[in-house]
Amino acid sequence: MARVIGTEAVEDGWRRGRTVLEVLPGDIVTEMARETAVRLGVRLADGPVERPVPVRTDGVTAMRRSLYRRSARWVAPARTVQPRARRFSRLAIIGAGGVGSNIAHLAANADIGDEIVLVDIVRGVAAATALDLNHAAGMTGTGARCLGGEDPGLISGADVVVVTAGRARMPGMDRAELIDVNRRTVHAAAEAIRTQAPRAVVIVVTNPLDEMTLEMLRATGFPRERVLGMAGTLDSSRFRAALAMAAGVAPADVDAIALGSHGDEMAPILSLARIKGHPLSKFLTDDRIEACVRDAVTGGGQILALRRSGSATVAPAHATVEVLDHIRGARAGPVPVSVMLAGEYGIDGVVLGVPAHVGPTGLVEVEILQLTKAERAALVSAAEAVRARLSR
Fewer CB in a 10 Å sphere around the end CB: N or C, the chain? Predict the structure, then answer.
């Protein structure tokens, strides 16, 4: 009898581990089912699908194999062990303001480390946040122990140090205007990291992010692999959220990435963006797509205009934890981060947001995407803008 194959049938097959769903002659497949199949990676195959012929073994061969397995020479094949995400022994956060405290909260809830340390120059702020998080552990059950204080020595032996300290933007203020004031903050943090946690991977969140990542790299003297900037992760999230809102779909249905500089020179990659596996043009007009790009570029400024004091805190914290998850092996694949480029995309000697594979020791490899000429030109333009701002 003819069947109606809907979303439920596709999702049920996906949950059972099936990658191919047979569609027999006369079956009716709904449009939502086809979209769900594309999103979940389930192939709808026109049936009847030919079944593989079972391998038949004669009795003599079967007996010989059975006796061989009983002999002393037979060794059972090693079981494949699924890699498990590691926990940090100590995660340190320099700066216990809105972003830093939110990172600590998310990290503690996810139980990603044995110790989570907060350091801030404002007396009592870091210690109070740490104590608050420890009190919450009675409800969350997390095993992470939180510590806080003003002493930079607290970061000693940290696996990863996240730097959020620095002055935040004010309404009408450009990120570049923070270079001089936040350069001093980053240099102070770099000195503490260099002396107290010389083997740590550093994640910079302080604005202007690409420039401050470069300052951290120079001040610590660390190799480029161990100094990363959280920027493209947040920019990509804002771009996906804007596309999902405009298309009326769930953010999980959107696959998109933003590269370049964390600011006006951001480069959302339209050629590779997909909604439910389809190019953006299937769901959005050119004007709507351009509006989504503007929304991603100005996302931080929109929050700043509403708050009037301070910038975004929640989304940057989530973006930072996403980078931390990639470092500890809880997520696979490339993640957009700011790194010192060494010839990738034809750019050298400047920090810029690019897709990269990261691990316990930081940067593993920059992934080279197939970009259009315009998109490559946007990356080069962003790199030159970062150079120009630092040379002022």
Answer: N
